[in-house]
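Trying the structure run again after the queue cleared.
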Amino acid sequence: MEKWLVGVDLGGTTIKIAFVTLDGHIVEKWEIPTNINEDGKHIVTDITDSIHSKLNELSEPKEKLESIGMGAPGFIDMKTGFIYHAVNIGWRDYPLKEELEKAMGISVIVDNDANIAAIGEMWRGAGDGEGNVLMVTLGTGVGGGIIVNGHIMHGTNGMAGEIGHITAIPEGGAPCNCGRTGCIETIASATGIARISKEKALQDTSSSLYALFQENGVIKAKDVVAAAEKGDQAAIETLDEVTFHLGLVIANLANSINPGKIVIGGGVSKAGHTLMERLEQKFKHFALKRVAEGAEMKVATLGNDAGVIGGAWLAKHNR
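Done. Tokens:
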């Protein structure tokens, strides 16, 4: 019997689940809502019930499943699958691996959600199987994963790859959710771009961004890119500021780890080629020439499937 791996990607609003072949192809994928009531105590049961009902629907036995790999938000002990704190879920000191193994009866491995997205892109996405990958995710926040010689970096207590909290502005930066100021997350995330473009638009009322802000109360990354492509000065200045700081951070990381692929994911990466072009220019300006020559910068290709495919890769290597 050909076995399947199970990839699970736990988010604050939905849980994505997939049955994946041993070579990384999705057989079936679906999602269920994340029930965060009572501090997330129903989540493991919901995942277990959903997997069993999907097996029944496909007329497949439970023995078809080899192992489960799961990504979860928060601070995680990789060895034990213990969640120290997952803010959006309500878990604190929660033995996720142990609970899911008890419920499913097969082995489970747990990692941080940003790490499994990076692994997914390495295995079946923009990473093209390259063993040295720097993944940067630009969404509501800035996340990332660092893969060296085919292994995701965790560090001494699971904090490796917290790219969003590299300090970009040492003095006088915007406040960050982590309690400090000036993190790259306050600049290159969707919220950071919205903040900077708003500041620029309010200084230049002739900008199309100003009119957009008056109308909608918010400016999105794709609006900034579209306005910059039409020559809007406030939009061009916003993109220059964002890509300057992000390009510098990525170059410093690349100088340290020498990646073959730099994968940019998250909603902001889809804002348009102008943003990516400028980012690549800034990166090449700051990186060592040989490091820049060895690194190909690409937009992530797996979208919402990155997490479940990365989870499946973890499951495969945990058998």
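DSSP finds twelve helices and 13 strands in the chain. Worth checking whether this holds up in the mutant runs.
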